[in-house]
């Protein structure tokens, strides 16, 4: 059994200073503190900012065919990279404010997904787990 | 000057196997390969899946006051953690398919933000950079 | 019983030319035809465009307190009005392409909601229907 | 020149009771009043709820090819219709709380779009207006 509650709070043993997510979180924290932005960075606001950034990211793809989207010109790809960065930064910030260890949550989710989508049932099918 | 194009493609020198983002990317890759899901995981589809997951995350906060959102009961917090995980997993998968190094992009974006939001102008203000 | 399948396809008897949704749909159709944009306006693309516009709308509110959001300065309110318009226009366009009568669907949904949220159980509570 | 401020507030002369948007707004108002839900329906919360519903709508399309998305099986199409209805209902509710006339805003936006996307420049191209 995956003990979610537990696994979301305790990160796997991993050297902190070499981990990109932990470094980014610390940098974001300093960035906001310097600007006195903690007053704006409550979870409700950050969830909205996250949605706004995902909206900006998706706009790059909306009129492209799947083939075009898989073969972006370099300038578009770089622009998408910066939007993806914004998504990650607000997601990290949201998790920090909620005391969620994002990497640990992602590992827990992968374990859950492995159970929800057993290879035998989900191979080659995009069906949602509750309809498998 | 931040050389975006360069910085998005080359990760800072960092031990790969200890980095949570790199480990998650590799695990996602194996997960999708085992299930023959690469056929669904093109960038256009992944951008949509990302938006869908952010929608699920935001729903947890929509009727809460800012105070309530900052003090979630543990069960809600764990549920938000798993939604945040889904956002990260699809974001990583999207970046992989576009050959974007998400951690490098995030570092580049933080450098850009430091220029766009100088402390002297942005202290205590949520104003967007182009109106500072 | 609400016969959804039926009600989504058949609009209530209502004079077409005076209905704002029907007029807007017809105008959108002409607008896209003149510009040869039907090639871009498939349902998958339109769903993405809709998400993008909602992202733009939500950005206006993300750093505001609930009180500030309820008392927008006129310029912001007008900007929000135009974003809301974009949401409606893409939503209508999506529904047209899927042969969905949006007004009929909305009426059907209101009837469903009345059953899912009986006054006696939902009064003063934002709890989702499946937890009432 | 389109006078946005004016046009967002004043609806075109149109018989109210026959207009689907106005009827839906009135029904939503009664629905919320009966359940004492106005306490939750402030613009910030409604903008979030709108984003959540669009997330649910987009999930129906994320793994489909453009062709599959344009040819939904009837059950999926009906489900999409109900999600589209939710988007409209929260959009209308948001506009009501902000005293925005959604139909008038949509008409104003169509006029703006006609100027931003002249047929001669935008025919057959999905390029955003500021790059035309």
Low-confidence stretches of chain A: 1-7, 9-14
Rg over C-alpha atoms of chain A, rounded to the nearest angstrom: 18 Å
Shape assignment of chain A: globular
Overall SS class of chain A: mainly alpha
Report the strand count of chain A.
0
> How far is it from the N-terminal to the C-terminal residue of chain A, by CA?
20 Å
Number of helices of chain A: 7
The succession of helices and strands of chain A, N to C, reads HHHHHHH
Largest interface: A-B, 76 and 76 residues
| Biggest sheet features of chain A | none
Give average pLDDT of chain A, whole number: 89
Oligomer: homotetramer
Helix content of chain A: 55-70%
Strand percentage of chain A lies at under 5%
Describe this structure in words.
Four copies of one chain form a homotetramer. Chain A is globular. The first copy, chain A, is mainly alpha-helical and 132 residues long. The first copy, chain A, is built from seven helices and no strands. Mean pLDDT of chain A is 89; it is low at 1-7 and 9-14.
Task: Considering the chains and any ligands shown, give keywords for the structure.
homotetramer; 132 residues; mainly alpha; 66% helix; disordered N terminus
Chart the SSEs and their pairings:
4 copies of one chain form a homotetramer.
Chain A: H1 4-9, H2 20-35, H3 43-59, H4 66-70, H5 74-97, H6 102-116, H7 119-122
Helix pairs in contact in A: 2-5, 3-5
What's the quick description here?
Chain A has helices at 4-9, 20-35, 43-59, 66-70, 74-97, 102-116, 119-122. Chain A is an all-alpha fold and 132 residues long.
């Amino acid at each position: 059994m995956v003990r979610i509650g537990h696994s979301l709070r305790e990160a796997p043993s991993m050297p902190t200073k070499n981990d990109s997510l932990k470094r980014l979180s610390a940098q974001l924290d300093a960035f906001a503190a310097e600007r006195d932005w903690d007053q704006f960075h409550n979870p409700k606001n950050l969830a909205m900012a996250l949605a706004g950034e995902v909206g900006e990211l998706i706009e790059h793809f909306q009129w492209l065919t799947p083939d075009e989207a898989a073969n972006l010109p370099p300038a578009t790809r770089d622009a998408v990279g910066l939007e993806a960065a914004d998504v990650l930064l607000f997601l990290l910030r949201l998790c920090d404010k909620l005391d969620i260890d994002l990497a640990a949550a992602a590992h827990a989710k992968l374990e859950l997904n492995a159970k929800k989508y057993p290879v035998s049932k989900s191979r080659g099918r995009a069906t949602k787990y509750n309809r498998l």
